[in-house]
């Protein structure tokens, strides 16, 4: 029998519903249960693919090519279960589906309304492909009280009535703020948040109370009394040093026990040894390493969430502490300004779009190449490294990407066609931006005895992509004359996926996003190797 858990949030956004959902899933998984995670986002965009990273953080890409919310990255990292297109729903998708059905006459002339047509679409999404799961955990994006989220809350209210209380559990995540001047925790925001939910017909069964400090017994009793929730179901979600402490911390607070008790289940005790081990390794490193991240969305770390976590995974694997030096690419527009790179052990240029900051990134790639600093270029970062090499090694001074300017040497150009599932995909220069990139997992053949071949230890790999531009195949032979080795190609031999620089300790560019497949218990081999190279440099200088 499939059971459903709905996680809502109140008081303020960014409380950590995604981490709470992923952590609960990992705890239930550790008891031998099969889980499935879904995210419902109230915004009207079809997906986050065209949204500014400053507004929404990174776009997480699934194997099957969906551009999704970054919380799906937490789901995959914590559970190891790959997410799918059908695991992320937005209001934009719902309304689009409803309007298509209306135009086709599927509603038989009925007046199309939020209830039942929109709510039915939401319920259908929640129930889809769940029959084989023990638990389906659905995170409702946004904050209770947001007008956009009302149809979602109404839908889950209806589902509880339709499926029965024995199959549906409501968890509400709130904030219990600590006010410095009176020196006390305040329960009133939580009370008001629950009151808001009650007004919508939803009584939470468990409260997750996010707090900087432990909640006193009296405050816990107060929350229990005014929110009509038993005391044991008021769970403290206290701030921790790193996200990988969250599952064990929530277990200590009794979250998974309350869930199991609610559903009257008998399961084995959770095996949390792997979580304990990773906490221990993070807290007890043998040395440290400093990586310079040259980006343009640095003021919001969530813009590079998967990349940060992949670097942590690589560092934990090498038993060192990771220090990230955030470097704004716009500061490096002149080579004279590259002093900020002198104390880093490795340099990463991540993915991105647009012309802003590209000159600085090119200069950073030049600095890494000339000074033999370990370098990893991801997606746009690879393209930047190609442009730099074309200009300064191959002497193609006007070499550039057609994304940035017109040029006689377009070493990077717009992708116009590629193969997906044995079918040719084409796009037009003036086509839509959303969903028209090379998205999802694609195979790549590795050149035998290349550096990446020894890193991956296999002939063929599969990695996730998200890009519109590619290395111009016509320049490969020219660039190879100057020490560039294109060590990874698409199976048809037409799309350069990886290049590495000869006569350099570690200089690799990849067109895909390896960070999307890195897991704390299965670190990505590229990040393990990159951090190892950075450690070696730190010990030399």
What proportion of the residues is helical, as a percent range?
A: 25-40%
* Name of the level-1 CATH class of the largest domain: Alpha Beta
CATH superfamily of the largest domain: P-loop containing nucleotide triphosphate hydrolases
Indicate the mean pLDDT. Answer: 91
Oligomerization state: single chain
Biggest sheet character: 9 strands, mixed
The best one-word shape is globular
What structural category do the secondary elements indicate? alpha/beta
In the CATH classification, which architecture of the largest domain applies?
3-Layer(aba) Sandwich
What's the number of helices? Answer: 17
- Radius of gyration over C-alpha positions, nearest whole angstrom: 25 Å
How many domains? The number is 2
Please mark out the parts with pLDDT under 50 across 5 or more consecutive residues, or reply none: 429-435
- The CA-CA distance between the termini, in Å, is 60 Å
What fraction of the residues are assigned to beta strands by DSSP? Answer: 15-25%
In the CATH scheme, what's the topology name of the largest domain? Rossmann fold
Can you describe what's shown?
With 541 residues, the protein is α/β, with parallel strands linked by helices. The chain is built from 17 helices and 25 strands. The chain has two domains: 3-278, 3-Layer(aba) Sandwich (Rossmann fold), CATH 3.40.50; 286-540, Rossmann fold (3-Layer(aba) Sandwich). The strands form six sheets. The protein has a nine-stranded mixed sheet with strand order 13-12-14-15-25-24-23-20-21, sandwiched between helices. Strands 5-2-6-1-7-10-11 form a seven-stranded parallel sheet, with helices on both faces. It has a three-stranded mixed sheet with strand order 16-17-22, with helices on one face. Helix 1 runs parallel beside helix 3 and helix 4 packs across helix 5 (114-127). It is globular. 47% of the residues are buried. Residues 429-435 have low confidence and may be disordered.
